[in-house]
User: Fold this.
Amino acid sequence: MHVVREARFAGAFTFQYSKRPGTPAATMPDQVPKQVVQERYDRLVELVNEIAWEENRRQQGRVLDVLIAEGEGRKDARTARLSGRAPDNRLVHVAVDPAHGVPRPGDLVTAEVTYAAPHHLVADRVVAVRRTRAGDAGEAAQGEPGGVMLGMPARRS
Assistant:
């Protein structure tokens, strides 16, 4: 908990320990009871979420580069936004501003963060859209089975 407080992680993938048959740890003495593991895990998740939201709120007003992705935002169509990842992997929902051009998956958008939520940011002030080779590849592959994701070819069978 001390390390999490000091590091101020923007997010963390946390998992409870579980015994794996055949591993040395599974047969070690003094196993921590499931109830204790659960209580510790719940405290850790609560702390990580609290810090993540604080850190996200600190992003308000900052200008970030966002790599637009496909399928990141479940509400993109309804909110007229596209979603992607900031350089530190935070999920960012970005407004579409036709004055700057409509970004494609794989393009970079520079935008100002206008709202922070516990697990994502919203950037409604677009500063620039930079078309990329990854966006070109994705656009060229539209309609093809498998398509392209962020410039990486999909595995075809």
